[in-house]
Amino acid sequence: MATLAQRMAGVELLVVDIDGVLTDGQIIYAGQELELKAFHVRDGSGIKAWHDAGKRTAVITGRASAAVARRAAELGVAHVVQGAADKLAAFRAILEKASLAPAQAAAMGDDLPDLPVLQNAGLAIAVADACATVRRAAHYVTLAPGGRGAVREAIEWILGCQGT
Ligand SMILES: [Mg+2]
After folding, report:
1. What's the CA gap between 86 and 83, in Å, rounded?
2. Residue 108 Cα, ligand 1 centroid: separation in angstroms?
3. Cα–ligand 1 centroid distance for 136 (angstroms)
4. pLDDT single digits (tens) 83-99
5. pLDDT band for position 125 (cuts 50, 70, 90)
6. Distance from the CA of 139 to the center of ligand 1, in angstroms?
7. Which pLDDT tens digit goes with each residue over 21-50?
8. 127 CA → ligand 1 middle, Å
9. How many whole angstroms from 6 Cα to the centroid of ligand 1?
10. What local confidence, expressed as pLDDT, does residue 164 receive?
C-alpha cells in the first residue's frame, strides 16, 4: 500500500470533473440550449501554475456545454471529454493518449459517477462538499468546496509535496 507521499510524488496528470468540482455544482439554464456555469478565478490560476510546472490537466464531464469548452481552452487543458457516459472509459482513453499509468494521475470528484475514476487513479481527491461515498473513497478531502478553490488547493498541495 503506497503512502500518501508516494502517491503524490508521481502525479503528472490532474483529472477533474466539472460540475461540483470546477464549479459549485449549479447549472443555470438560459433559454432552450444555453447552460451557464461559474468558474473560480483562483482555480484557473492554479491550473496555469500546474501547467507551468510541466504537468497536464484533463477534464471529464458527463454533461456537455460550450462554457466548458471555452474554459478548458482558456486554461490549456490537454484532454477534454464532455458527455462522458462512462467516465472510467474516458479516463483510460486519456491515459493511453497521454502515455501515462493510472498511478501518475490524480483524480478530483464530487459525486458517484466520479467514483470509478477515483478508485483507479493513483491519487483520489474529493472536494469538501462531495457526497459521503466519494469523500470516504478519497485519499484527500480538500478544505474548499467545489467551485470555491478546491482545485487550486489540491494543486498547491501536490506541487508543495513534490517540492516545486
Ligand atoms: Mg460532479
Report:
1. 9
2. 9
3. 16
4. 999 999 999 999 999 99
5. very high
6. 18
7. 999 999 999 988 899 999 999 999 999 999
8. 10
9. 27
10. 72
Question: How many whole angstroms from 39 Cα to the centroid of ligand 1?
Answer: 13
pTM above 0.90, yes or no: yes
Cα atoms in the 13 Å half-sphere on the side-chain side of 10: 15
Mean pLDDT of the chain: 96
Residue 60 phi, psi (nearest 5)? -130, 115
- Alpha carbon of 70 to ligand 1 centroid (Å): 18
- The whole-angstrom separation of Cα 18 and Cα 40 is 12
141-151 confidence digits (pLDDT tens): 999 999 999 99
Cell output for 39: 468558474
What is the whole-number distance in angstroms between the Cα of residue 78 and the centre of ligand 1?
19
Q: What is the DSSP string of the chain?
A: ---HHHHHHT--EEEE-IIIIIS-S--EEETTTEEE----HHHHHHHHHHHHTT-EEEEE-SS--HHHHHHHHHHT-SEEE-S-S-HHHHHHHHHHHHT--GGGEEEEESSGGGHHHHHHSSEEEE-TTS-HHHHHH-SEE-SSPTTTTHHHHHHHHHHHHHT-
